[in-house]
Amino acid sequence: EMHWSFNVQTQLPGQVLVEVGYLGSKGVKLWQTRDIDAVPNRYLSTSPVRDQQTINFLTSNVPNPFAGLLPGTNLNGTTIPRSQLLLPYPQFTGVTMLDQQGYSWYHALQARLERRFSKGITAIAGYTFSKTMEATSYLNPGDPAPYRSISAIDRPQNLSISGIYELP
Q: What is the DSSP letter of 52?
């Protein structure tokens, strides 16, 4: 993981400290689970609307070449959905692996105001405007790379106000 930042700080009249900065980070080679036993993309629909013809083709039952060979599994019947036979490993119900193709990135503009008062009292206000993005999952299992999306942990705006009172 890589991090970088750049901040500028100045003292304004009235003992007010102002700080503005940029913060960024990037995570690379993030572990993710990948399904390697999925229907190849060439059999999937590219239609922007529901493609009932493709759905019917993939879900229709066909004679099962594994009938009687895989006792105790749902692949032992006389018929099987066509989609199961199109898989790279049709004799299994799921094959996954871990790979390191995932990545993430974060960019933020940060601002902070700090005012120190007499008798040990300090007031602090901070604001962050940011975006967290990630590419840690596949839209379709047959895709060559993970798709980019806004992260579930993205909080684009954050305001915090706090105070400090030093005990005598």
A: H
| Secondary structure E strands in the chain | 2-12, 16-35, 61-63, 79-81, 96-116, 121-137, 147-150, 157-165
Question: Which residue, 63, 117, 73, is CA-closest to 93?
Answer: 73
Cα dihedral sign, 71-74-75-76? positive
pLDDT in tens, the chain (168 residues): 899 999 999 999 988 999 999 999 999 999 999 999 999 999 999 999 999 999 999 999 999 998 888 888 888 889 999 999 999 999 998 899 999 999 999 999 999 999 999 888 999 999 999 999 999 999 888 888 999 999 999 999 999 999 999 988
Characterize the bridge pairing of strands 157-165 and 121-137: antiparallel
| C-alpha to C-alpha distance for 133 and 23, rounded to whole angstroms | 14
pTM above 0.90, yes or no: no
- HEC-encoded secondary structure of 53-84: HHHHHHHCEEECCCCCCCCCCCCCCCEEEHHH
Element (H, E) at 85: helix 82-85
- Give dist(CA 17, CA 150) in Å, integer: 33
| Maximal C-alpha separation, the chain | 86
